[in-house]
Specification:
Blueprint (H helix, E strand, L loop, with lengths): L23 H35 L2 E2 L9 E2 L3 H7 L2 H34 L5 H13 L2 H12 L6 H4 L16 H28 L4 H9 L4 H12 L1 H16 L3 H6 L9 H11 L3 H26 L3 H4 L3
Antiparallel strand pairs: 1-2
């Protein structure tokens, strides 16, 4: 009896897209993404494009709303006036200070809250998440009024509650000094938006493979080593999104300053400067120029974050 010997089966490697090209999966996901988000994207573009272009156009004119007959084209002269004025640079410095302080504190607290929500027992997890997210559900104006009431020298309760702290007494005027005013504004912003950061980071924690954590434990890694070597590297995309969204939002801070100090004591931000030029002084051309510069700063921040983190989204998807 003759036995037939089959040729050996060659092992083949899975076919992947060449380096620098888009895989079929990425192409399909992009197509689906445009189909789902395309209509909303074009509607938002149509709604926002006109105000932006109108602001750029108005910034090229010397135009005061109370004197429309003397409207005159002056090119980029408004930008020269703003960039040579110390008021712009002081407002920019205040904005950067509030942005850096609030975002860094919110990132640390948000990550801690995300860890708490991720490790909470399944029976109380919904309650814990709801309690943490309550501040984010409060309207910003309402939150600002509440913090102003709490720190007010006449009606507030902070001075009486914390009189045991150094530098705090019954007659401490929190809104009478630049440093303390900015402190209260930062505290209000941190309390309000930390839950937003924690929610984004919680989604990032869910993407960290548990098998990597277990392998690190087997290798004898401590909690801090697992945090720096396993958890944070796998959350890089989520951290970038959280920092990007929150930084852009913090850079446009307006509500808390408007309610608490109205820009007094050197607490004026860039957004408040644009408001004061456009609404209070009715300088449409100058206010539009400030708004355009604010828009340029926001775009630069987004570019720096995206390029600085260098997140490979294809690798994050497992391609």
């Amino acid at each position: 009896m003759t036995q037939t010997t089959l040729p050996p089966v060659e092992k083949t490697q899975p076919v992947s897209a060449p380096h620098g090209t888009i895989s079929d999966r990425s192409r399909a996901e992009r197509k689906l993404g445009w189909l789902l988000a395309g209509p909303a994207f074009f509607v938002m573009l149509a709604v926002t494009a006109y105000p932006i272009l109108q602001a750029v156009y108005e910034s090229l004119f010397s135009y005061r709303l109370t004197d429309p007959d003397n409207r005159a084209f002056n090119g980029v002269a408004n930008y020269g006036v703003i960039l040579s004025d110390s008021l712009w640079w002081r407002s920019l410095g205040v904005t950067l200070l509030i942005t850096v302080v609030t975002v860094l504190v919110e990132l640390i607290l948000g990550f801690a809250l995300a860890m708490v929500m991720a490790k909470a027992l399944s029976s109380i997890r919904p309650v814990v998440r709801a309690a943490i997210l309550i501040p984010y559900a409060v309207i910003t104006v309402v939150s600002a009024f509440a913090w102003q009431f709490a720190f007010d020298i006449n009606t507030g309760f902070v001075n009486s509650w914390f009189a045991w702290l150094p530098g705090v007494s019954a007659d401490t005027d929190w809104f009478g000094d630049t440093g303390t005013s900015l402190l209260v504004i930062c505290l209000a912003e941190i309390w309000k938006t930390t839950p937003f950061i924690s929610l984004l980071l919680l989604a990032g924690l869910a993407q960290v493979p548990e098998v990597l954590q277990e392998a690190a434990k087997v290798d004898g890694a401590t909690w801090w080593q697992r945090l720096w070597r396993v958890t944070l590297p796998n959350m890089k995309a989520a951290i970038m999104v959280a920092l990007l969204f929150r930084t852009l939002d913090a850079f446009r801070v307006f509500d808390s300053i408007f309610i608490m100090t109205a820009g007094a004591n050197g607490t004026e931000s860039v957004s408040f400067l644009a408001y004061r030029q456009t609404i209070s002084r009715l300088e449409i051309g100058m206010g539009s120029a400030v708004s355009v510069l604010l828009f340029v700063c926001v775009v630069l921040l987004a570019f720096i974050f995206i390029k600085g983190f260098k997140v490979d989204l294809a690798q994050a998807r497992g391609e």
